[in-house]
Amino acid sequence: MALETALETGYGFWDPLVWILAVAIAAAVAYLIWRAGEEGYKRGTAQTEAFLSGNVQPEKGAIHVRAGNLYWGFLEALAQYYRRTVPVHTGVLNDYVLWFLGITALIIVIIGLMP
């Protein structure tokens, strides 16, 4: 009894036995690499801190980059747009759905009026 497991796709073949063998070999290699690792690792000690070229790690609040700093150029370039749209922004989902439906109705009317 011949066991045919390969599936010809026209671009190659799919054989689950080959994939199982490949995954098993990859897992064995990963296990061997893991076994060769350092056994002196201790969680929660200085070993787990980030290495900053020997410098003391600053407080997280001191190195935290605020979102306003990241988007400063973007916000500054579109300042006129945001001055008009931010007051309209209420944060209430019902308002957004109403805007969506109103604009969709407007688009449908405009498309309907086009020759």
Give the topology, please:
Layout: E1 7-8, E2 13-14, H1 16-35, H2 60-63, H3 67-70, H4 72-77, H5 79-85, H6 93-113
Antiparallel strand pairs: 1-2
How would you explain this protein's 3D organization?
This protein is mainly alpha-helical. Helices cover 54% and strands 3% of the residues. It has helices spanning 16-35, 60-63, 67-70, 72-77, 79-85, 93-113, and strands spanning 7-8, 13-14. The protein has a two-stranded antiparallel sheet. The longest helix is centred in the last third of the chain and has 21 residues, at 93-113. The chain is flat and about 70 Å long. The termini are far apart. The model has no long low-confidence stretch (mean pLDDT 87).
Key descriptive features of the protein:
mainly alpha, two-stranded antiparallel sheet, 54% helix
Quick summary:
This protein is mainly α and 115 residues long.
The average pLDDT value, as a whole number, equals 87
Oligomer: single chain
Helical/strand content category: mainly alpha
Number of helices: 6
What proportion strand? under 5%
Q: What is the CA–CA distance across the termini?
A: 70 Å
Instruction: Determine the fraction of residues in helical runs and give it as a percent range.
Output: 40-55%
Taking pLDDT < 50 over at least 5 consecutive residues as the criterion, the unreliable ranges are none
What spatial form do the alpha-carbon principal axes imply?
Answer: flat
Mind describing the biggest β-sheet?
2 strands, antiparallel
Q: Which strands sit side by side, in order, in the main sheet?
A: 1-2
What is the succession of H and E elements? Answer: EEHHHHHH
The strand count comes to 2
Radius of gyration: 30 Å
